[in-house]
Amino acid sequence: MPNERPHRRLLAWQESMKLATHVYALTNLLPAEERFALSSQMRRAAISIPSNIAEGAARGSKKEFVHFLGLSRGSLSELDTQITLAKDLGFVMDTAAVEAQVNRIFRLINGLISSTRATLETNHQ
Q1: Is 22 left (phi over 0), alpha (psi -120 to 50) or beta?
Q2: Which Gene3D superfamilies match (predicted)?
């Protein structure tokens, strides 16, 4: 599609959108008293991952893209911690699928950061 946004072609963005949907379903399992605490934090972190990938892809430079990928990876780490906490508190039992998604997205983001940095270094030489 000619008007397609560049972030939509990125597998990291596509997979993080799926993760955000998964996190919304997962947070529905949390107790009602966690609605404005852990649940809200998990949802914000999950939303932030694809949002930062999209914002970085829309920026004018590869350096900015790497910066926003770093923010996305930070949100992913935040979410990973929150998933572990939800499991440790006994709010959710089976987190294997969502943890596998998190691991996959870490690899995708790290790969994007590495390849973009390599392009930056090549262009500066």
Answers
A1: alpha
A2: 23S rRNA-intervening sequence (1.20.1440.60)
> What are all long-range contacts of 60-63, with beta carbons under 8 Å and residues at least 24 apart?
62/116, 62/119, 62/120, 62/123, 63/120
Q: How far apart are CA 75 and CA 6, in angstroms?
A: 21
So what's the pLDDT on residue 2? 54
Give pLDDT tens digits for 56-82. 999 989 999 999 999 999 999 999 999
Instruction: List domains and CATH numbers for the chain.
Output: 6-124 (1.20.1440.60)
What residue type is assigned to position 42 of the chain?
M
Asked if the model's pLDDT at residue 123 lies above 80, the reply is no
pLDDT band for position 90 (cuts 50, 70, 90) = very high
Residues 6+ apart with CB under 8 A from 101: 15, 18, 19, 22
Are 77 and 40 in contact by the 8 Å Cβ rule? The answer is no
